[in-house]
What we know:
Low-confidence stretches: none
Number of strands: 2
Amino acid sequence: MKKLITLILLFSLNAQAACDWKTGIIPGPNKTFIYTEECHQAVGALVQANKDLTSALTLKDLTLTKSDARIQLWMTTADSEQQRLSKIESDTKTNEWVFFGLGALTVIGAGFMTARLIGH
């Protein structure tokens, strides 16, 4: 993606600049290059555009990293809340059975005590 945008910038600046890329850049001594003034300005604009592009891509990557971290945090929170909710539902069912059992024992105990009192 970075190379594609750089090529698009290169061609858009090439159409506007007066630099002839074939004759404006001449190989120099010790693996250097000699630029005409127009090509020097065009290359400088490309270098600046590349710095801006690199900065924008770095910010984009940072934004995606932060977004992924937020998504992961949300998924972890949602999972823990789901587990907590299922535990509460399970405890509620257990409590209903315990209360039913205690109620049944109370009725049986009251009947047994009444029978003992009347029988005495």
